[in-house]
Write a structure and sequence with these properties.
heterodimer; A: about 650 residues; mainly alpha; two-stranded antiparallel sheet; 20 helices; about 0% strand; B: about 250 residues; 6 helices; elongated
């Protein structure tokens, strides 16, 4: 049973299943300790969790901003918050929720779970992940630091020119916005590249594309969308910054010199509509996983579900103009975008029916994660229906920039993303901690959030139809809007209590929760085929896959992978379509250069808020960091059979 | 059911899939780094495509393109970009492409040699490492240094191109766009040139190892992309204003 001898510092042949083997794998995957290990870690689980926790902190902060706004709107002509602060609050709330919470938290879930679900030891480019996290943190500090220093952005999360341009937004508030956005999207792109490559090249032998878990499909499609969508916001916000920067002063959006404000709207929404699906599709992946796990049967209509994900991704790039129906656009174009916007409801409908059929034909256990999913189905259906209404030019023209839109987008994003996310956090909590969250608190939590969401956002539909515009800091008593606004404020309070309850449940269960065991949900995917929490190397032996739900379908004598070097961080690269073993692939070790490069990039972008000269200086220093990052060490430059360099 | 619920407790009799005979590296789309590189280029392609789209979008706002410059003396009715530096830069880039093909081929040959040398067992590579890695590296290094220098030359020519645009970035939107397009592409050329020079240093130091052979093929792809993109941008910036009528209805 022994593999071929390998020359390495451990040395000697290895006996499969021996203590010697385990100790050598552990030694090969152990990272540096202490502050150095904390700063330079390349473990996808550590970084994925960090993304999740950091994103939840930004979620809470942005939620506090929302509560402040709701307090201000609780009664007419309230003097709690003035217009200047209010503008900063709603802009920072939207920006933080979209850029610092929704996308990163979904990517964090993917970064943690994808390598486990595809049965490998880490992501394909571990250092890139470290870089990505520190950039993300830098962007968050830039935004909230700006708000605290009274340079919080104040032109709305979509930052329309000319309002956001140099003429109408002097000072540095919108510079904070545009550089923060570019910074966070570099982070997003880096994570997306890692997810796509890991999915395509590091799947366990036998996990052909047709056997890939639906969660992995959703993360793969989402990451691919990020590659196409994020360049648009990076380009458009860089152009905005260049228009604004002293001594640069370009005219991309300046009508006086032939620029075009509508160019901003096109570029922004070409990014921002796909962004909605970048947030929603991972949630679809959570829902599919939870529904299958709870029903204890494989998903009904797996091919239809995968095709629905792909269709949503494609159509998602053809609907951006529905955000621009009140701009002077050709009617034919508007008709096409209406059609596309209606059409995108179809793949989502297909998935709804597949979920219902899976539950119907299974033996569902109504545990807390499934309750979140059921709440999601109801709420998202309402949000989807108001979305179909908004796809119509006639209706959109009436309610655009009113509270109707605010209601719609919160139903879609809170209902469509936050509910599945909380369900997913409950579902995978035992993976991270080894303990289950309290079921009873979970059920209360779902009820509280469900009521809270509807009390908060349903009245906004009516307010919008009654003519209340979004982004106003107050209103007159004669409008008759006070009752519904008060209701919304009370609902916001319920939502806040719900979130606090969730955090309390997580904190309490960390020590007191029921022990979960290896596979608390009797699920079929590979992340449950290892310890909870998993060791650094994920699996002692990489598994082989014989069906879509390996833990249900693998034969008892399914082979395990042996013959990888146990003394270095070696993983198995497989072919893209069939996941046939192709070659052994060695992953990089921890390094100081990714966090340093991230620090320099973040500082340069912060400098660019004030001075253009930060760009060339930053570029040179980042270039040096990247050079040293990629500098081959002799052991790595030579063929993959020499011993790994020690850290 | 649950064959892998606890891999740690897997009995020794479990069948195994032994992968120790597999090679230590793939090339092209077999290699994860190829996919990372491809995605990076996809991101950049999107960026360039949207910049081109922006150019074509604002162009529709003008009766005459490039917009005339009337705030100075003598006024320029059609400030067309000078063809000479742009075309010279294009020729340098095409010459680079030829040299890159040569390096690409040498790297692929060496990768194949590594594969042959490491059969039947990949661990054998270690013994031959020194010999094979350092065999015939001088012509490859020389070509790479040539590519790097030519890339820096193309970057210098780019500054002459900026001057030949007859418009500054802060004059009007045409200026903003053409400066951005040429500037962004200059960034690609400079990065590729510096990377080529660095890789030449690495080949000199470590020899043409299997890993560096793969790296050189990726570098070659980056050059091909940079040059192909330039041909599109060259047509857009230099020729589109010439072949389309200056004044539209």
């Amino acid at each position: 049973m022994s593999a071929e001898p390998r020359s390495a510092f451990g040395g000697g042949p290895v006996v499969v299943g021996s203590d010697d083997e385990r100790m050598r794998i552990e030694r090969a995957w152990r990272g540096p300790r202490g502050i150095r290990g904390w700063l330079t870690t390349t473990d996808h689980k550590e970084i994925g969790l960090r993304f999740i926790v950091t994103a939840m902190v930004f979620f809470a902060l942005a939620g506090v901003l929302a509560l402040l706004m709701r307090l201000q709107l609780a009664r007419p002509q309230n003097g709690f918050i003035g217009p200047d602060v209010y503008d900063q609050l709603f802009t920072t709330h939207g920006t933080a929720m979209m850029f610092l919470f929704a996308v990163p938290v979904m990517q964090g879930m993917g970064l943690y779970l994808v390598p486990l679900m595809v049965g490998t030891r880490n992501v394909a480019f571990p250092r890139l992940l470290n870089f990505s996290y520190w950039l993300y943190l830098g962007a968050g500090i830039l935004l909230f630091g700006g708000l605290i220093a009274n340079v919080g952005p104040d032109a709305g999360w979509f930052s329309y020119v000319p309002l956001a341009g140099p003429e109408f937004s002097p000072g540095h508030r919108m510079d904070v916005w545009s550089w923060m956005v570019t910074l966070v999207e570099i982070s997003s792109l880096a994570s997306a590249v890692d997810i796509v490559t890991t999915v395509l090249k590091l799947r366990a032998p036998g996990m052909s594309l047709a056997r890939m878990p639906l969660f992995v499909w959703s993360q793969f499609v989402t990451a691919s969308m990020i590659l196409f969508a994020m360049p648009a916001i990076m380009l458009s916000s860089t152009m905005l910054s260049m228009d604004r920067l002293a001594k640069v002063g370009t005219h991309f959006y300046n009508m006086a010199e032939g620029g075009d404000p509508l160019l901003w709207q096109h570029l922004f929404w070409f990014f921002a509509h796909p962004e909605v699906y970048i947030i929603f599709l991972p949630a679809v992946g959570f829902v599919s996983t939870i529904v299958v796990g709870a029903s204890r049967r494989p998903a009904v209509g797996y091919p239809a579900m995968v095709l629905a994900l792909l269709a949503t991704a494609f159509i998602g790039f053809g609907v951006w103009v529905h955000h621009m129906f009140v701009t002077p656009l050709p009617e034919l174009g508007q008709g096409m975008f209406t059609a596309a916007s209606l059409m995108i409801a179809l793949p989502t409908g297909v998935q709804f029916f597949c979920w219902i059929a899976t539950l119907w034909s299974g033996r569902p256990r109504f545990t807390a994660p499934l309750l979140y999913v059921l709440a999601f189905m109801v709420v998202f259906l309402i949000g989807g229906a108001s979305g179909v209404m908004l796809a119509s030019v006639a209706i959109d023209s009436q309610v655009t920039d009113s509270y109707f839109v605010v209601a719609h987008l919160h139903y879609v994003l809170v209902g469509g993303a936050v509910f599945p996310l909380l369900g997913a956090l409950t579902y995978w909590y035992p993976k991270w901690t080894g303990r289950l969250m309290s079921e009873r608190l979970g059920a209360w939590n779902v009820a509280l959030l469900f009521v809270g969401l509807n009390v908060t956002f349903f009245p906004m539909h009516t307010l919008g139809l009654a003519g209340m515009p979004r982004r106003v800091y107050t209103y007159l008593p004669s409008t008759g809007w006070q009752g519904l606004n008060l209701a919304a404020t009370i609902g916001a309070g319920l939502l806040a209590i719900g979130v606090i309850l969730f955090v309390a449940n997580a904190a309490w269960s960390r020590r007191r929760g029921a022990l979960a065991g290896p596979n608390p949900w009797d699920a079929g995917t590979l992340e449950w085929a290892t310890d909870s929490p998993p060791p650094r190397y994920n699996f002692l032996h990489l598994p082989t896959v014989w069906g879509r739900e390996p833990l249900w379908e693998n034969p008892p004598d399914a082979p395990i992978v042996t013959g990888l070097d146990v003394d270095s961080r070696e993983v198995l690269a497989t072919t893209v379509q069939d996941a046939a073993p192709d070659h052994r692939y060695r992953l990089s070790h921890e390094s100081w250069w990714p966090p340093l490069a991230a620090l320099v990039v973040a500082l340069s972008f912060t400098g660019l808020v004030f001075r253009a000269w930060a760009a060339p200086w930053g570029a040179v220093i980042v270039g040096v960091c990247l050079t040293l990052w990629f500098w081959p060490r002799r052991s790595h430059a030579s063929s993959s059979h020499s011993p790994p360099a020690r850290d | 059911m649950e064959a892998h619920a606890h891999p740690e407790e897997t009995p020794h009799e479990t069948p195994t899939l032994d992968v120790s005979h597999l090679p230590g590296s793939g090339i092209d789309d077999r290699h994860p780094a190829w996919w990372g590189n491809a995605q990076l280029l996809l991101i950049e392609t999107m960026t360039v495509a949207l910049l081109v789209a922006s150019y074509l979008y604002v162009r529709k706002n003008f009766g005459s393109w490039p917009p005339p410059r009337v705030n100075e003396f003598p006024p320029l009715a059609r400030p067309l970009p000078d063809l000479l530096p742009g075309t010279a830069g294009t020729i340098v880039l095409l010459l680079i492409a030829v040299a890159v093909i040569a390096v690409d081929r040498a790297a692929r040959r060496r990768f194949a040699e590594w594969e042959r040398a490491t059969e039947p067992h990949p661990a054998a590579a270690e013994n031959q490492e020194g010999a094979l890695a350092h065999r015939r590296t001088a012509p490859v290094i020389a070509t790479m240094v040539g590519i790097g220098i030519a890339g820096l030359a193309a970057s210098l020519i780019r500054f002459a191109e900026f001057r030949g645009l007859h418009v500054s970035w802060d004059d009007n939107v045409h200026g903003s766009l053409v400066w951005s397009i040429l500037g962004l592409h200059l960034f690609y050329v400079l990065t590729s040139a510096v990377e080529t020079l660095l890789a030449a240093v690495w080949v000199g130091r470590y020899g043409l190892t299997q890993k560096l052979s793969v790296d050189l093929t990726l570098l070659a792809i980056m050059w091909y992309w940079t040059i192909a993109v330039w041909l599109v941008l060259y047509g857009l910036v230099y020729w589109l204003p010439r072949v389309t009528p200056g004044v539209s209805p």
